[in-house]
Amino acid sequence: MSTQATRDIKGGRLDPSDYAENFSDIHPPLSRHEALVEADRCYFCYDAPCMTACPTSIDVPLFIRQISADNPKGSAKTIFEQNILGGMCARVCPTETLCEQACVREAAEGKPVKIGQLQRYATDHLMREFKEHPFQRAASTGKRVAVVGAGPAGLSCAHRLAMHGHDVTVFEAREKAGGLSEYGIAAYKSVDDFAQKELQFILDIGGITIENNKKLGAEITVSGLAADYDAVFLGIGLGNVNALGLEGEEADGCVDAVDYIARLRQATDLSTMPIGRHVVVIGGGMTAIDVATQAKLLGAEEVTIAYRRGKDGMNASDYEQELAQTHGVTIRHWLQPKALVLADNGSIAGIELEYTSQANGTLAGTGETTTLVADQVFKAIGQQFDGHPLAGSGIDLDRGRIRTNDERKTSLANVWAGGDCVRSGEDLTVVSVEDGKVAAESIHATLTA
């Protein structure tokens, strides 16, 4: 292909009104009538499989029954007792592979109860209408806990500890708290600054202080926090993005998808976000789906996801794959990146991909290749844990992440960890929330023994 400098990356590809429409709420909230009708579809199963499928063990039949009784406030409290980030999880959790997949109506009819949307209906109602926080803070214990990372794991841990009467200081490396909820999800999944509204709801329990722009390994250290606080919780996520390992990867137009999504989430004017006319995304997880779909919504003419395995191998759910495709994204399987094609000026002009096949569980290139024109190539092939901030701390790692026991204790006394940074982390918001909750209960038991 030609390597002339023909790249076309710019903002403002759409009419101003199109941005608001394209990035409006992908799932408009249920009305009261719609919620009551949907709640009536629930069988309120004994030993409900949907409850077992929820990583935070929300009593799904109970909260839906409370909606049926027109008690959304009580329903929301049932949800928040197990998952204080239940509002965000209702928006971003892959319910189609968790609670809704386990729903008996899914097995019988192929149409599960809309558990996620009902959860949002209840939690939104309480957060919108509450005059007093639904949970009361216990009397102060005089104990101080440091939480590193103001993402779902850290905020879940902080809230539960504050409820128990401990004083919590949350240290956050970025300018805003929220972690994945604030920076890492597609803009159309969480509109109207919901992440910050949820953050304030969590902080309203009292006893939690957030210090921004405090990065582990720089402004703070594990040893320093362990000396100054009675306990420490690490919810530091994954700091490094996997590289393609190709020559020219630093060229203009080869883009870190995680960083791009974060910038898009913080943009006050979406028309300023630069997007190519021809976009290729490498990866098969949620980040790949999110950046590809949003590229289309920003006005890219052609967006292609290239994934090295088949459809069933993609980490993104069938629903998310279909969502991308309905927005005009092409998903091509059995292709892996082989070489970046650079224009004469050194910028990205395309990408050469090699076809793959799998035999006996081993993936291998076939030697056959194809080349796609691309103004931008987005890297969305996963993230790695950055262990450098823990150097010299004495915390053990397991295959590149922090090793913890079932109570989320690390190898270092009075230090716990949870979320994506731990070995058992599943890179799901709801799992991170559960980790924070479990760790908080363990910390509380230790501090009050």
Please tell me about this protein's structure.
- The chain is α/β, with parallel strands linked by helices.
- The protein has 3 domains: 9-23 and 242-382, 3-Layer(bba) Sandwich (FAD/NAD(P)-binding domain); 32-129, Alpha-helical ferredoxin (Fumarate Reductase Iron-sulfur Protein, Chain B, domain 2), CATH 1.10.1060; 144-239 and 385-447, FAD/NAD(P)-binding domain (3-Layer(bba) Sandwich), CATH 3.50.50.
- The chain is built from 17 helices and 19 strands.
- It has helices at 16-22, 32-39, 49-53, 60-68, 72-82, 86-92, 99-102, 104-109, 115-129, 152-163, 180-183, 194-203, 222-228, 257-266, 286-297, 318-326, 429-447; strands at residues 9-10, 144-148, 167-171, 208-211, 231-234, 240-241, 254-256, 275-276, 278-282, 302-306, 330-332, 335-342, 348-359, 362-373, 376-379, 383-384, 397-398, 401-402, 415-417.
- The protein has a 5-stranded parallel beta sheet with strand order 4-3-2-5-19, sandwiched between helices. It has a 5-stranded parallel beta sheet with strand order 7-15-9-10-11.
- α6 runs antiparallel to α9 (115-129).
- The longest helix is centred in the last third of the chain and has 19 residues, at 429-447.
- The chain is globular.
- The termini are far apart.
- 46% of the residues are buried.
From the structure above, extract its key features.
35% helix, alpha/beta, five-stranded parallel beta sheet, 449 residues, Fumarate Reductase Iron-sulfur Protein, Chain B, domain 2, FAD/NAD(P)-binding domain, 17 helices, 3 domains
